[in-house]
């Protein structure tokens, strides 16, 4: 008799909005050889479309509404308790628009990824597309990084570039960046689940060796 296959690493996705990155991960996870299992989707906004996408894929959902909590610490405490119930191997922030406390980030060190719409370290924070256009940059993009205490400042694992076009608006640029997000996030989540990437004390290890610069998808 064949032994049961080892259980796949479990993934919990946190989102706040429309969840197109969540959808890209759900679609990728339908591949028979995808090395991870999305076990739950959490949201801080009741009614977010990400919850609908998860429900349609038969994935458990939960809502921890930040408006129900008097402080960031209380909200993070409730979120942490819910995450611990699922005990995931990986937490994927996919458009999760809450700043997390240091305690929260420390609790899941090395197990939490974020996607940010810029070529970090450039343009941390919000409104990245607008700021790139205002600066007249020719190249923009997306980064996926391990989450550390520094906002949008954790070691970057991979990036994809997007060429800025002359007639771009923040919306048109955002759309092309998002297309790259949907390609890149499943790739990086796959690497994590395969045990290929790890957070070390001073950066990212890829296949056990320090990553001197982020992995890059070619410009689109
Ligand atoms: C993405 O553009 C991501 O880079 C940013 O928030 C957006 C989330 O979009 N952090 P969606 O909810 O995945 O559609």
Automatic annotation (TrEMBL):
Keyword Transferase part of the UniProt annotation: yes
Signal peptide: none
Binding site for (6R)-10-formyltetrahydrofolate: 72, 97-100, 114
Residue(s) at site: Raises pKa of active site His: 152
UniProt pathway annotation: Purine metabolism; IMP biosynthesis via de novo pathway; N(2)-formyl-N(1)-(5-phospho-D-ribosyl)glycinamide from N(1)-(5-phospho-D-ribosyl)glycinamide (10-formyl THF route): step 1/1
HAMAP family: PurN
Family named by the database record: Belongs to the GART family.
Function, as annotated: Catalyzes the transfer of a formyl group from 10-formyltetrahydrofolate to 5-phospho-ribosyl-glycinamide (GAR), producing 5-phospho-ribosyl-N-formylglycinamide (FGAR) and tetrahydrofolate.
Stated name of the protein: Phosphoribosylglycinamide formyltransferase
UniProt organism field: Marinobacter excellens LAMA 842
Annotated gene: purN
């Amino acid at each position: 008799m064949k032994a049961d296959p080892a259980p796949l690493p479990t993934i919990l996705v946190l989102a706040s909005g429309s969840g197109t990155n969540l959808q890209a991960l759900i679609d990728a996870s339908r591949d028979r050889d995808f090395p991870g299992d999305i076990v739950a989707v959490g949201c801080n906004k009741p009614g977010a479309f990400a919850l609908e996408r998860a429900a349609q894929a038969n994935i458990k959902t939960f809502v921890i509404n930040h408006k129900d909590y008097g402080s960031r610490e209380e909200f993070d405490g409730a979120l942490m308790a819910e995450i611990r119930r699922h005990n995931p191997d990986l937490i994927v922030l996919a458009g999760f628009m809450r700043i997390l406390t240091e305690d929260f980030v420390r609790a899941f060190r090395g197990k939490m990824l974020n996607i940010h719409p810029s070529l970090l370290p450039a343009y941390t924070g919000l409104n990245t597309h607008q700021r790139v256009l205002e600066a007249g940059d020719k190249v923009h993009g997306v980064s996926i990084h391990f989450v550390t205490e520094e906002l949008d400042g954790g070691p970057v694992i991979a990036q994809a570039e997007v060429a800025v076009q002359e007639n771009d608006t923040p919306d048109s640029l955002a759309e092309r960046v998002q297309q790259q997000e949907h390609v890149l996030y499943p790739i990086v989540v796959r690497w994590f689940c395969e045990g290929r990437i790890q957070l070390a004390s001073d950066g990212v290890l890829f296949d056990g060796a320090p990553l001197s610069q982020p992995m890059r998808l070619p410009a689109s």
